[in-house]
Known about the structure:
18 helices, GMP Synthetase, Chain A, domain 3
Amino acid sequence: xxxxxxxxxxxxxxxxxxxxxxxxxxxxxxxxxxxxxxxxxxxxxxxxxxxxxxxxxxxxxxxxxxxxxxxxxxxxxxxxxxxxxxxxxxxxxxxxxxxxxxxxxxxxxxxxxxxxxxxxxxxxxxxxxxxxxxxxxxxxxxxxxxxxxxxxxxxxxxxxxxxxxxxxxxxxxxxxxxxxxxxxxxxxxxxxxxxxxxxxxxxxxxxxxxxxxxxxxxxxxxxxxxxxxxxxxxxxxxxxxxxxxxxxxxxxxxxxxxxxxxxxxxxxxxxxxxxxxxxxxxxxxxxxxxxxxxxxxxxxxxxxxxxxxxxxxxxxxxxxxxxxxxxxxxxxxxxxxxxxxxxxxxxxxxxxxxxxxxxxxxxxxxxxxxxxxxxxxxxxxxxxxxxxxxxxxxxxxxxxxxxxxxxxxxxxxxxxxxxxxxxxxxxxxxxxxxxxxxxxxxxxxxxxxxxxxxxxxxxxxxxxxxxxxxxxxxxxxxxxxxxxxxxxxxxx
Length: 492
């Protein structure tokens, strides 16, 4: 065991004690964060515009701070981009995280010095808690790779601008720098396919022990490693690979394919980072859900999804949530986001401590006929049926077919796989969807919808689509389902 590994185990014990302190007193932690944020907000233009002071109560907060998405907050962000200070947070942001927008084009999410430190601390906590639980710190002595966007940053009004993963690359602790891959030059390649090929060449003969990234892009890396080396599995290439850290999308639908590529099981650490804040991370290997991060300078609010679009939707603090309800998660952060609708939906699987699962996106659902199918349901159905029938797939997308040339409307599934569709797979998938969503079941049994139809796509179809949209690689994710056919028709 190397010196770094020994030190990591000592740090892991300390970190576990620290996390237990704030996760064991969650409401006190949130109250402290609320007080801290009110004090900081009061001296900003946004705070004055909304009459926020140290004495503002939460009931007053809900009436004075309306829920906002990026477009509604943009006038304040635009003022910062024009050089104003003390707009949303004290001074200027340290960074702007540049993300892909929808109606507004690129989004610029402010990140303060406090915000970037919270991002790094949460990632560190996830790794150390894994070590504390499993005792495995051997990966610290080998090479690690973080598949991420380019670390190159732009600058405007003295503020650095880049992708979240690129910004984080500037804050990797010094003791990990020698272990970290790929090289700066390779990491700076903008074309994702060229970058993956360069990473393969740079890492194929190294002692890789920790691999991190969004599952579909790690899967591409694994496939190209195997093709380049002629080996049968990642385990043959990296015999000491022991930890896969991932986030961004639900891992379950990818799990069987990834395990086949690796050659056996590998421990995984799931995280929930976003440009807006590091929201949650896996604290235990055998417990469901991710521990809500209450040490990140974020005051959370939650709105029941079924009431979100009402005229005056209810907003709840952490101590008011209950298990089993689908909530839109609202952020108030030490980077200057207030009443911010990040767009994700979550479900509490535990309130002691507070653990969540990400169930989807507010904008990603199918309800062409009132069924309101969500991402969690299609992902659960696909992962369970595929595992039961030993079917490996690369990716999938679901959309409604409202006006078929003949017969009743239906849900159309686009599934990329080189394997033959098992006999009975489509029927099993539809039956699973009916068991997960009673509205969908009623529509099928009431002869309003036909059972789902499945189109098998050739290998590379989804990457080709993402490339055509300029979103291949990095932190970009393909929506698993949509209430329109914008993606479906292009896949067709």
